[in-house]
Amino acid sequence: MNKPLPRRTVLKGGTLALLLGSADIARGATIVAVRVWPAVDYTRVTIESDTALKTTPLFVANPPRLAVDIDGIELNPALRELVGKVRSDDPYITGVRVGQYTPNTVRLVLDLRQMVQPQVFNLQPVNAGGARYQHRLVLDLYPSKVADPLEALIVDRLNGTQTNVPSMTATPPVSANALGTAPDPMADLLASQNRQPQPLAAQAPASSASGASTPFTSAASVGNNASQGSERFIIVALDPGHGGEDPGAIGPRGTKEKDVVLQIAHRMRDRINSTVIQTKFGKLPMRAYLTRDGDFFVPLQVRVDKARRVQADLFISLHADAFFTPQAKGASVFALSQGAASSAAARWMATQENRADLVGGLNIKTQDATVQRALLDMSTTAQINDSLKLGSEMLGQIRRIGKLHKPQVEQAGFAVLKAPDIPSVLVETAFISNPDEEARLTSESYQNELANALMKSIERYFSRNPPLARTRNT
Fold first, then answer.
1. Please, which of 47, 230, 252, 271 could form a disulfide with 455 given CB 3.0 to 4.6 Å?
2. pLDDT at 309
3. For the chain, how are helix, strand and coil distributed in percent, rounded to 5?
4. How far apart are CA 19 and CA 340, in angstroms?
């Protein structure tokens, strides 16, 4: 009778498997691609295979690392590529080790820079828009401590700088007791400048990423004493669509929607951060907040939550259309509809955009269905009316630099526009499926023209609808 191999021998065999060719180890499920999406918000590792993978994850705290045993596969070149895909500036991963742990199990180890809250889950195949994916195994690494984006915006404003503001991510809730003992640099800065802490900071919710369980008062409600020298400023949430696993629409020459809308968002951020709005309540400086500031996936609901977390005064989601034929052209602006869509085209567009979570890869196990439904049902007539006003201003400015697809603001059930307390619009900047408009979208001059037009519409909107005159509560 043969004796079982010692564990050390098995481990040595796993190391040796790294040197084997594909002909020696190609059986079982096949890994077809691996991708890494690093970002300050979180880092995602995606392993795509021809069949679903069965895994056993194990997180080790000291030193921090995530080990994942993948059953039913043998090491192949595609999986080995993961070792070289981790960037040196990745916020969470320092390195990757992979080996044949047992004859039918591959062990993947992610060495980490810090403690994380990992999520490991599977996604079904998807074929939508510019994405064609087979089965995906997803490893998400979220920070254990999340910076407060509203605090960062206020500190940024008080320091008179224009730094990039960290995003708020969809992490598990943090206990109130833990937060209560943490230092408050924003309050310290306010005190050092002989200012009383404003309710804006005191009301920043910190217990949940969803933002639906904590009452929100918009930044508009804290500036009623503007004439007394308060630090009231306008916050505009910019939402570049898609990102990461979700490329959005893809043009005839391969231009990805997720890339051009992020470029436009950056141009708008620069303009917003250098603008002061003159209203009857006085001069109000502006600050931009991006729901994503890099190439990574953000679920639709989290985009809404982020805007509410910073108590944004406006929410502008940036996209680029695509259609079945290359003839379609022109920009469009959409607002939310509480009932039926304003047209069949608007309904179709909402359906396409609402599939982003399916493509990008949403971990449905982390979603609170009750909270999500409550938030989606809370949209008010006032929010929609304000959104229509903003959209009309945008159409008036965009028609000065290019063609409109529709001359009026369209309405449909866009999930990303359902913040109940923030005027929200979705701007389809052009049809990326049209070769001429694809070329314009990649043009620096057109991106600047578009950013200028949208900035002008924001200024005109606030000149007619001063933010200090409106208070919103959920």
1. 271
2. 92
3. 35, 25, 40
4. 60
Among residues 157, 178, 153, which one has the least CA distance to residue 165?
Answer: 153
Residue with tokens 């989601």: 317
Q: What is the rounded distance in angstroms from the CA atom of residue 452 to the CA atom of residue 465?
A: 20
Tokens, residue 385: 């009316």
Distance CA 295, CA 312 (A): 22
Nearest Cα residue to 432 out of 258, 299, 236: 258
Helix (H) or strand (E) holding 336: strand 332-336
- Output the six-digit token pair for 142: 């979220």
Residue 248: predicted pLDDT: 94
CA distance 223 to 282: 11
| CB atoms inside a 10 Å sphere around CB 211 | 23
Please state whether 229 falls in left (phi above 0), alpha (psi between -120 and 50) or beta. Answer: left
Dist CA 50 CA 32 (whole Å): 7
Residue 353 pLDDT:
81
Residues (pLDDT < 50) of the chain are: 1-2, 4-5, 7-26, 163, 166-230, 369-373, 376, 379, 469-474
pLDDT, averaged across the chain: 79
DSSP assignments along 271-313, one per residue: HHHT-EEEETTEEEEEEEEES-SSS----HHHHHHHHHHTT-S
Question: Phi and psi at residue 214, in whole multiples of 5°?
Answer: -115, 130
User: Token pair of 104, please?
Assistant: 């039918």
**φ/ψ of residue 268, rounded to 5:** -65, -40
Question: Interhelix angle for 149-159 vs 185-192, to 10°?
Answer: 20
The pLDDT of residue 228: 39
